[in-house]
Amino acid sequence: MAFLKSAAGPALPDIQLLFNAAPMTAAPYFSPFVRPYADSFGCRAVLLRPESRGHIELASPDPHVPVRISQNFLATDKDWATLRTGLRLAREIGQQRALASFVEREIVPGPDCRSDAEIDAHIRATAITVHHPLGTCKMARASDPDAVVDPELRVLGVDALRVVDASVMPDLVGGNINAPVIMIAEKAADLIRGRTPPAPVNV
Predict the structure, then answer these.
(1) Which one of 126, 149, 172 terminates a domain?
(2) pLDDT tens-place string over residues 154-180
(3) Catalytic residue numbers?
(4) Beta-strand (E) ranges in 21-176?
(5) Is the domain of 77 the same as that of 164?
């Protein structure tokens, strides 16, 4: 795994590279009934801190009817440019001398895929989400019109109700959300029990 910057300007990485010791299409096989996948390795570029924003809306007054979720991926030119750069970074790493003895040829998207338009077409055909959603119950001061919970995770305007998950994050984190969610849960446990958090440790 690697966290990289797509350009010199950003203060923080905006690309995550995920390396697999097998192709992205690898699946269980059982010869001779299911053929094994071709021996290869892969790297997927992940767009961190996207500008694009989706939304959730009610589909019906009936609370049993699922809500409508519009994910609105890659809705800005900057997101496209960053992801395009990420793919080119992954390709560049695969062409380094240290990997030469493991590489016979580039399988996907293939050596003929070079222009922005060709790379964009490849992204459209192969992009996925790993669904780490967050931010639908924003934590903020009550003066923020988008606030849902206060800094102690209490739902504004509702007694005895807290939200304790990734939905309270006011913005995206630059990586996987598992560890931050655990931290939120630990903090919530202290708040609910009235425990004073330990003093910060200087290292």
Answers:
(1) 126
(2) 999 999 999 999 999 998 888 889 999
(3) 132
(4) 42-47, 55-57, 68-70
(5) no
